């Protein structure tokens, strides 16, 4: 493929990079790193989609640097011009000119951190997309997370035939791991294996690692693009609307909540207690509660609760039992951690990636419930049925909605990397796919906002106490 000469105009490769829009606008795109930031004399080529029989690129097909997505689409018009000033991100999608010649691409795909429904779908779509859209033939899977770059099995050569049915399987066929982030050895391995496109699929920790790799690539002035594809079953990554796999996990959680409800309803003073994943955020618990409608109380890390006293959990539950004969509680694994007694060693325990290791809130709460009943209501029948679906909500293939997301996010990543962008993440912002600097994603965190309408909605469907308002009044004050 012949390089494109650099002539002024819309097709000038300099337009692949953020520029000042031709019409004055109050919207300034968030700058997106590009290989040309640290390398000079890059060549550009026509996009092979021009000659792909399945595509007929017409006006508007290719995304220009002037196509942006605003992060805030809700405005208070009384705030005047200031209302429109919110970060705008470059829109994801194919560019008219690409920087990588497909025959020179050596792509590496790696999955890191915990599982999430859809991981295998993203891998499949990266392989098929690189192969079919751009004609890339050298695609490798790095096994067992970041450590796989320099340790263990050699990268596996991937092709569409091999990954054909991966989307039907939960987990990651490339295998994943925590820890094992050795920056120097990872970048050395990238150089040794001549990888020039790195697709990193992972959560917040993975993105922090990707920032470091990106910075090291720039420091060494390597001709390597790196991109992050955000994966988090907890939905704890900021900037993007949500991660793939989150909706699937919420859907899976319904089975546990339904079972807890049936058990609770079928007992005298029955309590169904369900613990759901969510290390430091309660998104899964919240969405599972709202979609179920059988939940009486949703406990999340963002809304510290207490057990005894006026306005506390037990007072509320007693009311539920007297009114309805049963109650269903959903608790996120990160909730109530400050109330669970722990040894000094447990206080500082971390997993291999440095994440805090939590004590199990489920059995603790079950035991507290029993102690409360024995203490305050001895002689009355009481049952607690505890359900912990743990890995069952994430070790499954993606549902249809998440599957579509996986394809769109994988293709977005490919188009961006082929255009020479680097150090970025693809993800939906207000329903449209955007490119976001990986540094920004690594620093952003998505937590449940207990001041907004959604949390008010939870409280209105559950009628659970406003623990924040009442905090300090119970014998386990919130912290
Ligand atoms: N601050 C960090 N710097 C570099 N690497 C990190 C950092 N935090 C986590 N990692 C690495 O990213 C990978 C996944 O992190 P982890 O927290 O386990 O999962 P997730 O990415 O899903 O949040 C691990 O290999 C871990 O060592
Ligand atoms: O897979 P492990 O190491 O048992 O960790 C379980 C944790 O993984 C999570 O699914 C989150 O994982 P990530 O940080 O990889 O997104 C949490 O909900 C849960 O606490
Ligand atoms: Mg994480």
From TrEMBL:
Pfam families on file: PFK (PF00365)
Entry EC no(s): 2.7.1.11
Limits of the Phosphofructokinase domain: 108-415
Cofactor names: Mg(2+)
GO MF terms held by the record: 6-phosphofructokinase activity; ATP binding; metal ion binding
Localization of this protein: Cytoplasm
Ranges of compositional bias, category Low complexity: 15-29
Active site positions, chain numbering: 234
Gene3D superfamilies linked to this entry: 3.40.50.450
Record key words, sorted: Allosteric enzyme, ATP-binding, Cytoplasm, Glycolysis, Kinase, Magnesium, Metal-binding, Nucleotide-binding, Transferase
Site (Important for substrate specificity): 205
SUPFAM superfamilies found in the cross-reference section: Phosphofructokinase
Pathway linked to the protein: Carbohydrate degradation; glycolysis; D-glyceraldehyde 3-phosphate and glycerone phosphate from D-glucose: step 3/4
Activity regulation annotation text: Allosterically activated by AMP.
Cellular component, GO annotation: cytoplasm
Keyword Disulfide bond among UniProt keywords: no
Signal peptide: none
Chain positions covered by the region annotation Disordered: 1-32
Binding-site positions, Mg(2+): 204
Keyword Metal-binding applies: yes
EC class: transferase
Function per UniProt: Catalyzes the phosphorylation of D-fructose 6-phosphate to fructose 1,6-bisphosphate by ATP, the first committing step of glycolysis.
Subunit-level organization: Homotetramer.
Family label: Belongs to the phosphofructokinase type A (PFKA) family. PPi-dependent PFK group II subfamily. Atypical ATP-dependent clade 'X' sub-subfamily.
Record protein name field: ATP-dependent 6-phosphofructokinase
């Amino acid at each position: 493929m012949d390089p494109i000469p650099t002539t002024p105009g819309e097709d000038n490769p300099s337009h692949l990079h953020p520029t000042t829009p031709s019409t004055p606008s109050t919207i300034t795109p968030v700058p997106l790193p590009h290989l040309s930031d640290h390398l000079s004399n890059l060549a550009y080529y026509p996009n092979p989609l021009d000659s792909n029989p399945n595509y007929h690129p017409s006006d508007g097909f290719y995304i220009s640097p002037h196509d942006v997505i605003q992060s805030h689409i809700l405005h208070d018009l009384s705030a005047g011009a200031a209302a429109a000033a919110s970060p705008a991100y470059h829109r994801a999608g194919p560019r008219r000119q690409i920087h990588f010649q497909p025959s020179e691409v050596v792509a590496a795909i790696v999955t890191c951190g915990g599982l999430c429904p859809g991981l295998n779908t993203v891998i499949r779509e990266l392989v098929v997309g690189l192969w079919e859209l751009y004609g890339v033939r050298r695609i490798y899977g790095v096994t067992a997370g970041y450590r796989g770059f320099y340790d263990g099995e050699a990268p596996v050569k991937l092709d569409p035939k091999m990954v054909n049915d991966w989307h039907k399987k939960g987990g990651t066929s490339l295998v994943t791991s925590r820890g094992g982030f050795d920056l120097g050895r990872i970048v050395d391995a990238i150089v040794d294996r001549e990888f020039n496109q790195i697709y990193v699929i992972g959560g917040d920790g993975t993105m922090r690692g990707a920032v470091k790799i990106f910075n090291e690539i720039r420091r060494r002035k390597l001709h390597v693009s790196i991109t992050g594809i955000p994966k988090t079953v907890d939905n704890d990554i900021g900037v993007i609307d949500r991660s793939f796999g989150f909706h699937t996990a919420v859907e899976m959680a319904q089975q546990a909540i339904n079972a807890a409800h049936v058990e609770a309803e079928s007992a005298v003073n029955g309590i169904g207690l369900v613990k759901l994943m969510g290390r430091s955020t309660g998104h899964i618990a919240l969405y599972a509660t709202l979609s179920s409608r059988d939940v009486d109380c949703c406990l999340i890390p963002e809304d510290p609760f207490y057990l005894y006293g006026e306005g506390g959990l037990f007072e509320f539950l007693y009311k539920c039992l007297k009114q309805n004969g049963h109650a269903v509680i959903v608790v996120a694994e990160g909730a109530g951690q400050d109330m669970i007694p722990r040894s000094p060693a447990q206080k500082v325990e971390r997993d291999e990636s440095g994440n805090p290791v939590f004590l199990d809130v489920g059995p603790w709460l079950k035991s507290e419930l029993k102690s409360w009943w024995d203490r305050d209501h001895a002689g009355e029948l009481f049952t607690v049925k505890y359900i912990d679906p743990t890995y069952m909500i994430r070790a499954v293939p993606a549902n249809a909605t998440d599957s579509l997301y996986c394809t769109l996010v994988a293709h977005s990543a490919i188009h961006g990397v082929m255009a020479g962008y680097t150090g970025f993440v693809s993800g939906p912002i207000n329903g449209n796919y955007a490119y976001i600097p990986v540094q920004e994603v690594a620093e952003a965190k998505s937590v449940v906002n207990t001041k907004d309408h959604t949390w008010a909605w939870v409280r209105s469907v559950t009628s659970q106490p406003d623990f924040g308002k009442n905090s300090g009044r119970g014998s386990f004050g919130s912290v």
